[in-house]
Write a structure and sequence with these properties.
Helix 6 packs parallel to helix 7 and helix 6 packs antiparallel against helix 11. The chain has 374 residues and is of the alpha/beta class. The protein is built from 12 helices and 19 strands. An 8-stranded mixed β-sheet has the order 3-2-1-4-5-6-18-19, with helices on both faces. It has a 7-stranded mixed β-sheet with strand order 11-10-9-12-13-15-14, with helices on both faces. The structure holds nicotinamide-adenine-dinucleotide. The site of nicotinamide-adenine-dinucleotide has 28 residues, from helix 6 and helix 7.
C-alpha cells in the first residue's frame, strides 16, 4: 500500500510564526511509514530550517507540490481561498481552521470538496483527546507568554526585592478568566514573585486558582455562570454591567491585568471598561488575550497594537501570543496533530470514521457536506 502523504505548509499570514509539523514530529511520522512533505521555508519563522526536515527524511518542496502531492495538509490557521482552490477532492486539511467562530469556513471547505478537520471542535474532557487538544496547548503557551510581555512593559519589579538601596514591593497581578490560559498566567506570575488574584464566573475554577497559591475573587453580582461542557455561558446585559462595575475596584487596585475570558461562539465579553482603564494607576499594564477586530475583554485594546493611554496605562493585544513563541507552540501543536493522525489513519490508510465520537466532532466538512450547517 502507498504511504499516506502529509504536508506542512508555510502559513500565509506574516504574523503567524508557527508551523504545523516540527522536525521532531516529522521524524516520528517518517518512522511510522508516512511520506512527509514540507513547503520550503515552512518552519523558518519558528527557527526550524529546511535542513532540519531533510535531515529526518522529510522532503522539502515548493508550495504547489506540497499541496498537490499530499493526502493530508497540516496547517495552523484558516486556509484562504487560494489554498482551497489548489486542493483536490477528498484531500484532508487539519488545523485550527476557524470554523467555530466563522460558519462560512465549513461551507468553503465543503465547497472545495475537502475533508476539513478543525481541532477547535475537539471534545476536551475525554481522556483520549488530551493529547489532541490544540486549544489547550496553544492557550497554555499564550497564558505563559502574557505574563512575560506584561512584565517586560512594567516599569517595576515583579517580585519583592530587599536590597541595600531599599525594598521593592511585589507587583500585583489580576487574571480575569481562569481557564487554561488564565491558570498558566497565574502560575507564571507566581513564579516571577508577583501577588496574584484570579477571577472566573465558573465557581469550579476556585480550587484551581487557589492550588496555584493565588487568591480567588468572588463577586456579589455574578455568582455562577458555568455553561455546558466546562465553558462559561454568556452573561445577560444586566449581569455584565454589574460585573464590570464590581470588577472596577479590583482592576484599579492591581498593576497588571491579564484577561482571557471567552464564551464559545460569541464575541469575548468586555470585563474592563474604558472607565476602569482611566482609573488605573500610571504605569499599569493590561494584556487582552481576547482582543479582536470585534472588540475584546478590554475597552481600548486594538488588534496588532500596543496602546499607551494619555495617563500611562499600556494595553497590549494578546491575541497572537502563541505565534509569538513559535518554537514551543509549534512543538506542542504538531504533537496534537500527530495524536489526531492516530485515529484518522488506520492500518496505513485514511479512514474518516464518523462513528468515532472524536472524528464526528472535529470533522467540519466531508464528501462535499458542511457538517456544521444548522
Ligand atoms: P475559554 O478559553 O473558553 O475561556 C477562558 C475562561 O474565561 C474560562 O475559564 C471561562 O469560564 C472564563 N469566562 C468566560 N466568560 C467570563 C466572564 N464573563 N467573566 C469571567 N470569566 C469568564 O476556556 P478554556 O480555557 O478553553 O477552558 C474551558 C473549560 O474547559 C475549563 O473549564 C477548562 O478547565 C476545561 N478544560 C478541560 C479539559 C480537560 O478536562 N482535560 C481540557 C481543557 C479545558
Amino acid at each position: 500500500m502507498a504511504a499516506v502523504r502529509i504536508a506542512a505548509l508555510r502559513e500565509v499570514s506574516e504574523i503567524e510564526r508557527r508551523v504545523a509539523i516540527v522536525p521532531e514530529v516529522a521524524a516520528r511520522l517518517v518512522k511510522g511509514g508516512y511520506e512527509v512533505l514540507v513547503e520550503k521555508g515552512a518552519g523558518s519563522r519558528a527557527f526550524f530550517p529546511d535542513q532540519s526536515y531533510t535531515d529526518v527524511g522529510a522532503k522539502v518542496v515548493a508550495r504547489a507540490e506540497a499541496i498537490s502531492g499530499s493526502d493530508i495538509l497540516a496547517v495552523v490557521d484558516t486556509p484562504d481561498a487560494t489554498l482551497l482552490g489548489a486542493t483536490h477532492q477528498g484531500q484532508v486539511i487539519v488545523g485550527l481552521l476557524g470554523a467555530r467562530s466563522d460558519p462560512a469556513v465549513a461551507q468553503a471547505l465543503a465547497d472545495a470538496g475537502v475533508t476539513g478537520i478543525d481541532l477547535a471542535f475537539m471534545p476536551r474532557t475525554l481522556s483520549r483527546t488530551q493529547t489532541m487538544d490544540a486549544l489547550s496547548s496553544q492557550s497554555s503557551v499564550a497564558g505563559y507568554r502574557s505574563v512575560l510581555v506584561a512584565a517586560e512593559k512594567f516599569s517595576r519589579y515583579m517580585a519583592m526585592m530587599v536590597t541595600a538601596a531599599g525594598t521593592a514591593k511585589p507587583a500585583r497581578v489580576i487574571v480575569l478568566g481562569t481557564g487554561v490560559a488564565g491558570l498558566q498566567a497565574i502560575g507564571t506570575a507566581k513564579r516571577l514573585g508577583a501577588m496574584v488574584q484570579g477571577y472566573d464566573v465558573r465557581p469550579a475554577s476556585r480550587g484551581e486558582v487557589e492550588s496555584l497559591g493565588a487568591t480567588f475573587i468572588e463577586l456579589q453580582s455574578v455568582k455562577d455562570a458555568a455553561g455546558e461542557g466546562g465553558y462559561a455561558r454568556a452573561l445577560t446585559p444586566e449581569e455584565q454591567a454589574a460585573q464590570q462595575a464590581e470588577l472596577e475596584g479590583y482592576v484599579t487596585a492591581n498593576d497588571i491585568v491579564i484577561t482571557t475570558a471567552q464564551v464559545p461562539g460569541r464575541k469575548p465579553p468586555v470585563m474592563v471598561t474604558a472607565k476602569a482603564v482611566a482609573e488605573m494607576k500610571a504605569g499599569s499594564v493590561i494584556v487582552d488575550l481576547g482582543c479582536s477586530a470585534l472588540g475584546g475583554n478590554v475597552e481600548g485594546s486594538q488588534p496588532g497594537q500596543t496602546v499607551i493611554t494619555d495617563h500611562g496605562v499600556t494595553i497590549i493585544d494578546g491575541s497572537n501570543l502563541a505565534a509569538e513563541m513559535p518554537g514551543s507552540a509549534s512543538s506542542f501543536y504538531s504533537r496534537n496533530i500527530m495524536a489526531l493522525l492516530g485515529i484518522l489513519v488506520v492500518d496505513g490508510a485514511i479512514n474518516v470514521n464518523l462513528e468515532d465520537e472524536v472524528l464526528t466532532a472535529v470533522v467540519v466538512s466531508h464528501d462535499g457536506q458542511n457538517r456544521k450547517a444548522n
